[in-house]
Amino acid sequence: MAPRGRKRKAEAAVVAVAEKREKLTNGGEGMEEATVVIEHCTSRVYGRNAAALSQALRLEAPELPVKVNPTKPRRGSFEVTLLRPDGSSAELWTGIKKGPPRKLKFPEPQEVVEELKKYLS
């Protein structure tokens, strides 16, 4: 019987997230304004929550573009990130390590809007 592979450590996942953010910021070179990126798994429940959240963000800050899944999302992910024009990023919400139950993965839209206001002021 062949040996089974090891499960990925949490550190490897953190490195993968950092690399992904770096790709997003490098891919967005020449950005002149901040952008909000919502990454969510493609299941229906995640999509509904992302739509409600993006609508709340657009109402609160209409001048900020909101991108939903600009790259292929990770399985079970729900993250909201603010990409700044200088290339840095700020995580407004991550639901990756939250749950069960699944509803803990999704933020209240007002929570994310409050975090966004902190970073914009």
UniProtKB/TrEMBL annotation:
Belongs to the SelWTH family. This is Selenoprotein H. May be involved in a redox-related process. The keyword Acetylation applies. InterPro entries: Selenoprotein_Rdx-typ (IPR011893), SelWTH-like (IPR052674), Thioredoxin-like_sf (IPR036249). Pfam families: Rdx. It comes from Pongo abelii (Sumatran orangutan). Keywords: Acetylation, Redox-active center, Selenocysteine. The gene is SELENOH. SUPFAM superfamilies: Thioredoxin-like (SSF52833). One of its GO terms (cellular component) is Golgi apparatus.
